[in-house]
Amino acid sequence: MSNYSSKKIVAIGGGHGLGRMLAALKDFGSNATGIVATTDNGGSTGRIRECQGGIAWGDTRNCINQLITDPSIGSMMFEYRFKGTGDLNGHNLGNLMLTALDNLSVRPLDAIELIRDLLKVDVNIIPMSEHPSDLKALSVEGKWVTGETSVDEMEQDLQRLDLEPVVPATKEAVDAILQADCIVLGPGSFLTSIMPPLLLAELSQAINSNTKAKVVFVENLSPEYGPAGRMTLEQKLQWCERALHGRKLDVILGEQAHPDICSRWNCMTQPLASPNRDWRHDRNKLKQAIESLLQ
């Protein structure tokens, strides 16, 4: 165990990026918490939501997958994706298991805990909200679109993002933020993974009011596409701070130096990429970077 394992860390985001961050924080065990976006409407998740309703489970499933240390029949089952023709093609069994638990009126958070126990995952994973909601965006030309996939495909730049409908944050997510020593935003898709949780009033107010925590923004290693890809790093940081009611981001963690913004933000520049896949963060490098911020 690391010396910092008594510190509490909360990481916020979506599937791949948040899963990577949580895998880096695995040694923190139950002192690490992931707060997961639940607004996805693409792929298997989108198809399930269309016919069954409920929150989007795909990002939560992705995070759990990246935290499984002992592969087992249970984990193979949870990760299984159907192939072939017909309705099951492309569906992920983990998504269907979580949807089934939801349909059995099991609270989404309890459903995740059941799966975590089954797969021996210590890190806490909390959906940002237990109520279904979609991402909604307003273009600079005044056009609204609804749904994450539509937001990603927008030709125009965005002036604002909202949740439709407005839903309450999960109470346990708010509590975790209030107790955190460090709050990490990213890496991940900026508009569709990092921003949705920050649009929940109780979550953003909790981050704003926890003045003892360091708030860290982790940059992506590869460029994004769509409207997020057209945003500068400075714009992204401003969007975060606006969502957090003016709360300053304490550290910007990335591989590239940004002389233009480092007079206004505290930039920490160091190598973070995996040696064999330079578009993906290395778990150990991420872990060391976060631990150094907790000193």
What does this structure look like?
The protein has about 300 residues and is of the alpha/beta class. About 40% of the residues lie in helices and about 15% in strands. The protein has helices at about 15-25, 45-50, 60-65, 75-80, 95-105, 110-120, 150, 170-180, 190-200, 200-210, 225-230, 235-245, 285-295, and strands at about 10-15, 30-35, 125, 135-140, 145, 160-165, 180-185, 215-220, 250-255, 265-270. The strands form two sheets. A seven-stranded parallel beta sheet has the order 3-2-1-7-8-9-10, with helices on both faces. The chain has a three-stranded antiparallel beta sheet with strand order 5-4-6. The radius of gyration is 18 Å and the shape is globular.
Task: Please give the oligomerization state of what you see.
Answer: single chain
Could you say which structural class the secondary elements and strand pairing correspond to?
Answer: alpha/beta
Overall outline: globular
Give the number of DSSP strands. 10
Question: Keyphrases for this structure?
Answer:
295 residues, alpha/beta, 7-stranded parallel beta sheet, 3-stranded antiparallel beta sheet, 13 helices, 10 strands, globular
